[in-house]
Amino acid sequence: MLIRKTFLAVGAVALALTGCSQGSADLTSANQQTGAGSDAAAEAASPFYVDPNSNPAVWVRKNPRDARAAAIKKSIAAKPGAKWFGNWSGDIGKSVSAYVTAAQKARKTPILVAYNITDRDCSGHSGGGAGSPAKYRAWISKFAKAIGNRPAVVIIEPDAVAQLDCLPAGSRKTRTALLAYATKQFQSNAKKTRAYLDGGNSNWIAPATMAARLNAAGVKNVRGFSINVSNFFTTAQSAAYGKKVNAALKGKYRYTKRFVIDTSRNGKGGVPGRWCNPAGRKLGVTSRAGGSSGAEYLLWIKVPGDSDGPCGVGPGIPAGTFSPVLAMRLIKGS
Fold first, then answer.
1. Which of 38, 57, 60, 61 is nearest to 49 (CA)?
2. Residue ranges per domain, the chain?
3. Is residue 121 flagged as an active site residue?
4. 21 vs 255, which has greater pLDDT?
5. Which residues are the signal sequence here (predicted)?
6. Inter-residue contact 86 to 129 (CB < 8 Å)
7. Catalytic residue check, 159
8. Dihedral of the alpha carbons of 75, 328, 229, 25, in degrees to the nearest 10
9. How much is the pTM?
10. Phi, psi (5° rounding) for residue 67?
């Protein structure tokens, strides 16, 4: 869904995000329960919500007789992961509130992605976004207020920080200011939300540069930053990068932040420069606490099977469109 380019190759204080009266999962308890043990146990203890209307789930319902349906349901559609919100989401307040409410009723914590920054994806496969800075500010404010005082995990604008280089100087300042505004909206209006400002991947922006950009974009206002969204690099590579970013934050700004890693497609790792539906990739561990990885959480942020664009082993498949062919390749690691 997102463009990926190559440039380069924790805090320990508990911040409780407790479930509210309707019964959303307690992420602090989940961290304590799933930090070690078997993969099956960690998956079973995951506090995160399974989207019943994800693209893979909808495809499975519409194609029950397809020979691939059972495998896609078991390996992808039944797993907890993120729901992406953007200019396709209609009334953003209603859409976000409905999703968070559904997660509450299931006694789980939803993972949401805010993906509507002005000049999104630098005119790449996922180009678009809010039509103006004013429209974005209104959109992200409604997003945060719709969550309100309910637990959630939010990934703020994948690629937006890492892609600053593609923008003119004036637009870079505008984007940084918009991201800082977004972090303040979650800080003020969604106090039980653990929000993570996206920090690219381990083979894109140098750690010190990323730390400076994250600081300017308001990462201090939120829980932390995300790594490897929609990419394929291993958990170990991503965690090492996150620690380097934190070392740079600590050295220059005197604070560190927690980070989360997208593991949705990193089961076999990645190759620098091959970000768009590459062959030979595989599903990674499902959404759970980070355990000994160094990350706070390992999350399925990218929806497995959703195309990165009409490229790689998905020619002709637009970004964000589900493909059973891509899904089965990830299941088989082919």
1. 57
2. 27-332
3. yes
4. 255
5. 1-25
6. yes
7. yes
8. -10
9. 0.91
10. -60, -20
- Mean predicted confidence (pLDDT) in 138-156: 98
- DSSP character string of 154-191: EEE-TTTTGGGGGS-HHHHHHHHHHHHHHHHHHHHH-T
Catalytic residue among 51, 159, 262, 306: 159
pLDDT band at 30 (very low <50, low <70, confident <90, very high): low
Fold topology of 27-332: TIM Barrel (3.20.20)
Q: How far apart are CA 88 and CA 92, in angstroms?
A: 9
- pLDDT of 228-260, one tens digit each? 999 999 999 999 999 999 999 999 999 999 999
User: Which is nearest to 267 in space by CA: 319, 231, 217, 292?
Assistant: 231
- The full DSSP string for 137-160 is HHHHHHHHHHHTTS-EEEEE-TTT
Q: Of the residues 51, 121, 262, 306, which is catalytic?
A: 121
Is there a contact between 201 and 237 (Cβ–Cβ < 8 Å)? no
